[in-house]
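=== RUN LOG ===
request id: a7f3
mode: sequence -> structure
chains: 1
length: 281
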Amino acid sequence: MSDEVDSRSAPGTDWSAGLAGRVDVALDAGPGGAARLTRLRCSGALAARPTPAGLYLLATAAHPVGDDASRIDLTLGPGASGVVRSTGATLARRGATGGSSTAAVRATLADRATLCWLVEPGIAAGGASHVATSTVRLAPSARLAWREEVVLGRHADPCPGSWRSRLEIRRDGAPLLVTDLGLGPGSPAWASASVLGGARVLSSLVLVDPGLPADVWAELTARAPGAKGAAFALAGPGVELMAWGEELGACRAIVARLLDDVELRWLPRDAVQSGPDARRG
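=== RESULT ===
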């Protein structure tokens, strides 16, 4: 990924006003199909760095804490291809006032654009309350891989925090996937069998591709010690692969097993990370 442009706001502008951290990125298709960075603006507790492996998000300060708010905007032009990763997990922590932190991501993909959002897990430490809202707008020929992982509590944390995840994906203006899932003590339904049965780890990979086979996902499930999962076909050319349990490695193994029979050459290998063996049902 070339980094020809690294433009920041001029003094006196308020593009990041009221936010603990903000990132604004635009990518176009460069020579030979390589991604070309045409806009990169960062402020506050968030930053982004272009590398040959993709664009890496990083925290420049403890974030999010308490009622922090952040926002990330991604724009991919026609034919552009981009991979977004992070240097580590996002650790949400309780602030002095006990408020909820929020993080908003907005991505817009033009025709033939491809985005692989492969950031590391979000962790809700004890007493934290975090709301993550992601909105993705896809042109009809765009492709998307959107990975989201949540871990409630740090190691041996007896009382985890809460994490609410909202994801809306629209393709050609029509809704393709709209979810709103609450995890942890702040969402009582989380512990019910109809939701996640109190599981403390969630791993999800949403794939959207006009060439994705539609007849692979019916009643597709998988299990591993301490985790289970299933594939859910979308109302369009896509699928959500979801696993839940007590260990992140086991959940990642479930997602990898569900994807065994499908080859997507545009999907990076680390989109489905290795873990303990999983058995598909």
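=== NOTES ===
DSSP finds one helix and 19 strands in the chain.
The radius of gyration is 18 Å.
=== END ===
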